[in-house]
Design a protein that fits this description.
Helix content is 40%, strand content 18%. It has 329 residues and is α/β, with parallel strands linked by helices. It has 2 domains: 150 residues, 3-Layer(aba) Sandwich (Rossmann fold); 165 residues, L-2-Hydroxyisocaproate Dehydrogenase, Chain A, domain 2, CATH 3.90.110. Strands 3-2-1-4-5-6 form a 6-stranded parallel sheet. The structure holds nicotinamide-adenine-dinucleotide and (2S)-2-hydroxybutanedioic acid. The site of (2S)-2-hydroxybutanedioic acid has 11 residues, from helix 10.
Length: 329
Amino acid sequence: MKDAITVSVTGAAGQIGYALLFRIASGAMFGPDQPVKLRLIEIEPGMAALEGVIMELEDCAFPLLQGVHGTSDLEDGFTGTNWSLLVGSVPRKDGMERNDLLGINGKIFTGQGQAIAKAAASNVRTLVVGNPCNTNALIAMSNAAGVPAEQFFAMTRLDENRAKSQLAAKAGVHSSDVTNLCIWGNHSATQYPDFTNARIKGQLVSEVISDQAWLQGEFISTVQKRGAAIIKARGLSSAASAANAVVDTVVSLSNETPAGDWHSVAVASSGAYGIEPGLMASMPIRTEADGSWSVVEGVPVDEFSQGKIDATINELREEREAVKHLIPA
Ligand code: NAD
Ligand code: LMR
């Protein structure tokens, strides 16, 4: 039996938590022979609901689950953790943009970054889901003194999955036939789902879908506004699809990326593609068999794409400016 992987999840009694924990415990995230331990973090008002969730986890008798611990203490929650999944925060309501949440949610990530630095395992990887996730990840990373920047991520995989589904539906193929789909920039209404490099059954999208107006217009805006469309329809923000994207992100960051393909996640820029160093920006990422990752180099960026990337990177700069009081110098 392998040693257990410890996973900390904040906001564990929330909507995404409820759709995520059972997938982790069942083996969907780390595989069918990898035991896991869960450390679940909630604020005090959420602790009673969390107790109920823990009872349900126990009642599943998952073979791979080696322990569940619930707490409202951050250092306790991140003790020895290998993966911290930062979900806990307030979701937006109909009519809001995600960065309207910065004032409410941004400050949550200072204490979480500090607690991760103090208590987590040295190899801890942190994935921020709580919105606006790119800038919240920047805050967590900046407050986690001593934890390497390359161990912080923000989630744009839900956008990648959405984009693949839209392209597949338009082309009349299955979403698994769509590869090389990169989301650039911010998980927001400025994000750029890059159809120019995406492939369908190995062919460039533009060779399969001739409707350029749709690709440059409706396709992009549907992906950019999908979160808002779900909130309007459900009265609540996406949860099961978000939890599924968390699983996909961790799987993709833990296993070798298929040759020639890439996956989308926001990482701290080191200047690739002219993106300002330090900003947490989504870009094309490749993972090796040992779990190390790198930015895929040489992905063509045409004039149309560059304009879209510039807009989303500008928004990330503005968000960083708005939270500069939360980022230690
Ligand atoms: P929710 O309100 O159902 O649950 C959030 C939970 O977090 C609650 O149980 C709450 O008590 C807890 N919480 C709040 N502050 C906390 C803190 N400081 N520490 C620990 N727990 C805390 O919300 P949800 O639907 O699960 O969404 C959670 C977040 O994920 C939101 O910010 C939402 O916008 C975001 N989200 C991101 C993506 C993405 O693709 N990046 C997708 C969907 C949702
Ligand atoms: C999403 O993309 O569904 C989430 O970020 C929730 C939201 O506010 O749109």
